[in-house]
Amino acid sequence: MKFSVLLPVSPETSDPGTVVAVARHAESLGFEAVSAVEHTVVVSDTDSRYPYSPDGKLSLPHDLPYPDPLELLAYVAGATDSIGLSTSVLVLPNHHPVVLAKRLATLDRLSRGRLRICLGLGWMREEIEACGGVFGKRGKMADESIDLMRALWQGTGPEGVVFEGDFFRVENAHSYPKPYREAGVPLHIGGHSAAAARRAGRRGDGFQPLGLSGDDLSGAIELARSTAKEAGRDPAALEVTLGWTLPRAHEQVEWAESMGADRMLLSGSRRATNAEALMEEMADTAAALGLGR
Question: From CA 53, how far away is CA 57, in angstroms rounded?
C-alpha cells in the first residue's frame, strides 16, 4: 500500500515557503506523493450541483486561492528530491490536449518521472465553459484528449503524429520533449459515475473513486476492472486510489486492501486548520503506518 498526502486547500497552498515545507515534510516522513487540486475559476452564482455534499453546494469560500496544480507541482519538484507529484483532480475539459500533453511531458521529464495525473471531467458547467470547454460533450472530448496526448507522447517517427478525431485533429505533429518514462505520464481517472469507472477501465492507468462508499464503491471498482478486461486490458494493472483522512488512517489499511486499493490519498482532518497542524497529523500518521523505517 502506498500513502500520499493531499496538499491543503487553503490560502497557505499559495504561500511558497509553506507549500515547500509541507512537501518536504511529507518527503522526509516517507509519503509516496503530494497531490494538488484544481479549479481554474470558481463561479459564485453557479447552478451546477457539487456532487460530493448533501446540499450540492461547494462549502469552501469562492475567493479561496486555487494555485494552478501543474505550476504548483513544478515549484514543489524543484524544492524536493524524490516525492511523487500528482493531481486530485485535474479538470481535463479546462485544457486543450495538445498544450496539456506538452506541459505534462515537460514536468515529468524535469522531475525525472515523478508525475502522476488523476483527471476528471469536472462538475461546474460555468467553469468549464469559461475555459472554452463544451460541458455537454466533455465525456467524448475527454476520451479523445487522452488518446491524443498519448499519441503525441509516443510519436517519434519522421512524419510526425497524425490524429483525426471528432473534436481534435493534428497532422505531421512533433511534440518534444517526451515524458521521462517511455510509457508516458500515468493517467488515472477520478470520479463517482459509472462513466468514470468505464473510462478508467478502457483508458486509465488507474481509478480514483470519489464520494462513494459501501456497495457503490465496490461496484465502481468492479465495473472499472470488468471494463478493462472487456477491452483486452489487464484489470490487475489498474491502480486503485482511495481517499481517507490522516488521523487513524492506519486503522483503515485493512479495509483499503480488501477493496483492492493500491494507494490511500490522505487529507488533513477538520482540526488541521493550518499547515503546522497538518504537518503534526502527517507525522503522527507516518509513525502509525510505519513509514520511513
Answer: 6
CA atoms within a 13 Å half-sphere pointing along the CA-CB vector of 279: 15
Give the pTM.
0.96
Between CA 269 and CA 4 the distance in angstroms is 15
**In this structure, what C-alpha cell is assigned to residue 86?**
500528482
Residue 10 predicted with pLDDT over 80: yes
pLDDT tens readout for residues 138-163: 999 999 999 999 999 999 999 999 99
- Flag whether pLDDT at 293 surpasses 80: no
Confidence of residue 59 (pLDDT cuts 50, 70, 90): confident
- Cell 472487456 belongs to 230
What string of DSSP letters covers 261-285? -SEEEEE--TT--SHHHHHHHHHHH
Specify whether the CB–CB gap between 143 and 167 falls below 8 A. no
For 164, counting Cβ atoms within 10 Å of its Cβ (0-12 exposed, 13-18 middle, 19+ buried), the class is exposed
pLDDT class for 235, splitting at 50, 70, 90? very high
Sign of CA dihedral 31, 210, 252, 227: negative
The CATH number of domain 2-194+206-219+236-289, selected from 3.50.50.60, 3.90.1170.30, 2.102.10.10, 3.20.20.30: 3.20.20.30
What are the distances in angstroms from CA 204 to CA 159, 207, 218, 253, 278?
Answer: 28, 7, 18, 24, 31
Q: Where exactly are the structural domains of the chain?
A: 2-194+206-219+236-289
